[in-house]
């Protein structure tokens, strides 16, 4: 141990001397010389500053090296990491939305580690089209004439409007001028796409005559936006898709429908509330339908565009299509997920999103009863733990007024400062090796177990909980 005099703080070991230590050499092998050197210099600067403030300070070389290793491990840990989504929101935007099936993960791994025919026609030996890998499946599953894919549904809406409505009016009901997460607003995206928004009707009531009266020589399209993240109730009126499609055909303008979330099967078959499907919307007469790949569909982030051949070809020729295109990993995952929909009988077992949404309440309650005791043992007697009834939501702008009965665990402090204690408890669960993300409700930290698919991994790490 070195105890330098205040005036001799420069006697701290040099960077080179520390690098020659075997323990530091191990750090160099693990983290690389540049990072280790940078860390040593930064920590030595802190030691010098400490000596200036406290002349009785001592330098412990072994402790210094240990601190260096700990700090390097913390700062090089991956920022993007798995978490337990116990928020009660199945498709949580901040937690990555849909969990993809293993078949999609395998497809992505293969695409990442091997050359693939991304834009190569194996039959003709010529340049191919990357959308072709998923287009045939989208045509089969939606009944569309053609399809395209971009990096998310906002991009799909933008690209369609920029293609069909550039420098033209696009008619939208005032009740459909939505805003979704991240301040994405239909009026803003229309403006950026080069369209002029032409509002029709009122917030709560829009009639066919409103569209008819607004149609003119500068009209580029009629657009209908599905209310996927809100609900207007009471004295309301909206125009049915078949009626809007008929009017659009009579006036010679495209009819665009943005489904937002989108689903390829009727959810009612699985005991869930109905959500419009692209097939239904196209059957109603829509010329183009846009929807997401990473919400109810249960795949990767993507914006899917299906509809009439002539219009889809125009969309594909838009120069912005290249700027919004998806990569080989997205296409690999999306193709694998779309293939699952060709076998509806196994869809609930194979697709994690649908499996979570249809999970029986009894299963969740039994799981809650099993893990409650393990949580209570981990946190000790100072906090209260109990099984409670929960209401899960689908999330990410899907079926906003519908909830799913669930069960969870509530952890709370019996004292008066429940709010601050709940935040402290939530922070402790987030600090676990695989962070547990719940929610604060009524002064308690609540974990909805609907999405707890790896109970063993959840329970085993509770021993590391620090409250």
Summarize the structure.
The chain is α/β, with parallel strands linked by helices. 41% of the residues lie in helices and 16% in strands. β6 and β7 form a beta hairpin.
What does this structure look like?
The structure is a single chain. By secondary structure, the protein is an alpha/beta fold. The chain folds into 3 domains: about 10-75, no CATH class; about 85-90 and about 355-465, Aspartate Aminotransferase, domain 1; about 100-350, Aspartate Aminotransferase, domain 2, CATH 3.40.640. It contains 19 helices and 17 strands. It has helices spanning about 15-20, 20-30, 35-55, 60-75, 100-115, 130-140, 155-165, 185-190, 210-215, 240-250, 280-285, 310-315, 320-325, 330-340, 345-350, 350-355, 360-380, 420-430, 455-460, and strands at about 85, 120, 125, 145-150, 170-175, 180, 185, 195-200, 220-225, 255-260, 290, 305, 385-390, 405-410, 435, 440, 445-450. A 7-stranded mixed β-sheet has the order 4-12-11-10-9-5-8, sandwiched between helices. Strands 13-14-17-16 form a 4-stranded antiparallel β-sheet. Strands 1-15 form a two-stranded parallel sheet. α2 packs across α3 (about 35-55) and α5 (about 100-115) packs antiparallel against α14 (about 330-340). It is globular and about 90 Å long.
Note the topology:
Layout: H1 15-19, H2 22-31, H3 33-53, H4 61-75, E1 84-85, H5 102-113, E2 120-121, E3 126-127, H6 132-142, E4 146-150, H7 153-164, E5 169-173, E6 179-180, E7 184-185, H8 186-192, E8 196-200, H9 208-214, E9 219-225, H10 241-251, E10 255-260, H11 278-283, E11 288-292, E12 303-307, H12 309-317, H13 320-323, H14 328-340, H15 347-350, H16 352-357, H17 361-379, E13 384-392, E14 404-412, H18 418-430, E15 436-437, E16 439-441, E17 444-448, H19 455-460
Helix pairs in contact: 2-3, 2-4, 3-4, 5-14, 6-14
């Amino acid at each position: 141990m070195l105890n330098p005099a205040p005036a001799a703080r420069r006697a701290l070991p040099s960077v080179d001397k520390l690098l020659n230590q075997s323990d530091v050499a191990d750090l160099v092998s693990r983290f690389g010389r540049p990072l280790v050197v940078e860390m040593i210099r930064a920590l030595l600067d802190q030691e010098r500053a400490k000596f200036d403030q406290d002349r009785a300070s001592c330098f412990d070389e072994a402790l210094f090296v240990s601190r260096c290793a700990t700090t390097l491990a913390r700062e090089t840990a991956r920022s993007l990491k798995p978490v337990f989504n116990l928020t009660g929101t199945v498709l949580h935007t901040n937690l990555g939305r849909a969990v993809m099936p293993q078949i999609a993960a395998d497809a992505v791994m293969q695409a990442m580690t091997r050359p693939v025919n991304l834009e190569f026609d194996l039959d003709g030996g010529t340049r191919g089209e990357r959308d072709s890998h998923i287009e045939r499946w989208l045509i089969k599953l939606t009944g569309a004439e053609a399809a395209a894919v971009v990096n998310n549904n906002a991009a799909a809406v933008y690209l369609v409007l920029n293609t069909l409505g550039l420098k033209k009016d696009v008619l939208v009901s005032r009740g459909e001028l939505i805003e979704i997460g991240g301040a994405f607003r239909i009026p803003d995206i229309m403006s950026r796409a080069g369209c002029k928004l032409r509002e029709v009707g009122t917030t709560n009531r829009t009639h066919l005559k409103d569209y008819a009266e607004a149609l003119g020589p500068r009209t580029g399209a009629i657009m209908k936006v599905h209310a996927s993240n809100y609900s207007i109730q009471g004295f309301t009126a909206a125009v049915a898709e078949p009626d809007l499609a008929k009017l659009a055909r009579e006036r010679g303008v495209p009819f665009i429908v943005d489904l937002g979330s989108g689903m390829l099967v009727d959810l009612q078959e699985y005991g869930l509330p109905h959500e419009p499907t692209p097939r239904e919307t196209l059957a109603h007469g829509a010329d183009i339908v846009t929807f997401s790949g990473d919400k109810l569909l249960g795949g990767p982030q993507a914006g899917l565009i299906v509809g009439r051949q002539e219009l889809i070809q125009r969309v594909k020729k838009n120069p912005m299509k290249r700027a919004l295109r998806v990569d080989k990993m997205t296409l690999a995952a999306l193709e694998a997920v779309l293939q699952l929909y060709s076998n509806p009988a196994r869809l609930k077992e194979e697709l994690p999103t649908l499996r979570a949404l249809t999970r029986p309440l009894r299963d969740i309650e039994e799981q809650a009863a099993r893990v409650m005791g393990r949580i209570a043992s981990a946190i000790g007697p100072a906090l209260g733990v109990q099984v409670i009834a929960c209401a899960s939501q689908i999330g990410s702008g899907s079926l906003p007024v519908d909830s799913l009965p669930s069960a969870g665990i509530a952890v709370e402090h019996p004292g008066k400062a429940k709010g601050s204690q709940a935040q402290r408890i939530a922070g402790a669960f987030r600090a676990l090796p695989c962070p547990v993300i719940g929610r604060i409700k009524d002064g308690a930290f609540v974990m909805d177990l609907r999405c707890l698919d790896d109970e063993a991994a959840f329970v085993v790490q509770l021993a590391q909980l620090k409250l």
